[in-house]
Amino acid sequence: MIKKTIFNKTQTERIFLIFSFIILMIATVLSFILPAETRSVIPYPKITIPFLNTICTILCFLTIFKMNWYMLQYAILFIESICTILTGYELLEIFLYSAFLIKLFVNGFFVKKLFPKIIILILIWLITILGLIPFGFERVILSYASLCFFCTFYLHIYKIMENDLIRYMPPVPVKSEIKLPSYGEKLYLSDYNLSDRQNKFLMEYLKNGKSYKSMAEIFIVSESIIKTEMSRIQRKFGVKNREDLRVLLLQYEVLETR
Fold this sequence. Notes:
Elements: H1 9-33, H2 45-65, H3 70-86, H4 90-106, H5 114-129, H6 137-163, E1 186-188, H7 196-208, H8 212-219, H9 223-237, H10 242-249, E2 253-255
Parallel strand pairs: 1-2
Helix pairs in contact: 1-2, 2-3, 3-4, 4-6, 7-9, 8-9
């Protein structure tokens, strides 16, 4: 019997965005009610903070219905992380900024030009934390150490999940006579008579999980070609849709050729 998951990816993302909207709405209300921190380096904090919170709340509400607007999600996390640290809430900022980095990571932002992007984001973080100086230099030092802890902890968990991925994957129904290796082993696409174009499409999808439209832009082909080739790959591996294909192949170390 196939084990079913409680929520799929779309449902969990929508739930996340709904609760993000709720907490932002609460923060917006509180920013109008509670007195602003006078030591903040943000100019006119009694006006600026409620205004920024209101804008982020509205944007977050929009993302509930347009979940593929990832740039809005990035912008909300980035703006709120900057605002929280400049108003003295450094622990919340550390969580929000690390969440911002994780969101970028899982959506493939670091696949290309990794080091320049990391350096820029680290510099932004280092400069922003200096905004805590009015609250005491010891809090600046604590913030640097805390964010390093958060990032290394997330990296540690990621490596655990990467190495033991099979334990967290639901089984996928496969209706095909092709022979697959044991879970966790290497799977060579060259063993399954896929075309070079199919190999490239599939590897791009596995690495970044992009939509067909995004893949069409990357490979400079029509979206219908992407759909056709991916459908053929799905039939080859005996799965009913691209999500099952992704879940199935993520349980192997997929390589193009031997």
